Amino acid sequence: MIVTTGGRYNEHSLQKAKDIAIRYKLDFVMRKKRSVKELRERYNDDVLVVGRDGISITPLTGNDSVKYHPNFSMVRAKRLLKNEHDALVEAAELTAGMSFLDCTMGLGADSVIASLTVGNSGRVTALEDSLILYLLTKEGLSSYDTNIGVISDAMKNVEVLHEDHETYLKTLADNSFDIVYFDPMFEEKISNSESLRAISAVTQSKTLSETAINEAKRVAAKKVVLKDHFRSRRFEQFGFIQQIRKTSKVHYGVINTETEVDS
């Protein structure tokens, strides 16, 4: 991956681009009025663009750029601040002070909701195997200004790691997190969103494995939670209790590890 600036840049965005290149050990390239397509073809690599309004990445494969934005997580976060319900919070029974491991971060929406719920006394760690999504989300969470302090703080409090979840889970001790969470790519399409299509193009296609679920059950002190399409076979396959949501195509499944330990 190479790093460059937007077509029109200022000293701040230029320095930020150089800083990102240094921190992630990537090559910085001056834009020199070249298009992203020209740079991608010239260097045969993904192109990270630092603009004055944020960063985006155009993968080598595909024509759509991916840009960080909190999207629907902002709506959900504002609802939480009004003491309204959130399906993930209810499925995981998240409360202040708990620890939450998001094994499939993507753009981090669920991690932000978890972080807002567990607060400063809790802990949220998010894993992402795709370098593009990891870099984009890590930078986005640390710098995006929501104009709502408590939400911006929740975003910054998420610990983001570039890790394969199955490999990472094997390194953890028993009961390391209260909640272990999976939100894998759905097997069935439920959205025509251009942003989701762009994300799916750079998301790791590794399927959820029995090994990962078994490791998650060992690591989770309270629950393993799965978010999936309501028709997904994975709920039954891995022993999740599917929580039916009649008005949504997205369902949550829960394995209660406290019960398993007590029995």
From TrEMBL:
It holds the Pfam family SAM_MT. It comes from the Bacteria. InterPro entries: 16SrRNA_methylTrfase_J (IPR007536), SAM-dependent_MTases_sf (IPR029063). GO terms for molecular function: rRNA (guanine-N2-)-methyltransferase activity. This is Putative SAM-dependent methyltransferase. Keywords: Methyltransferase, Transferase.
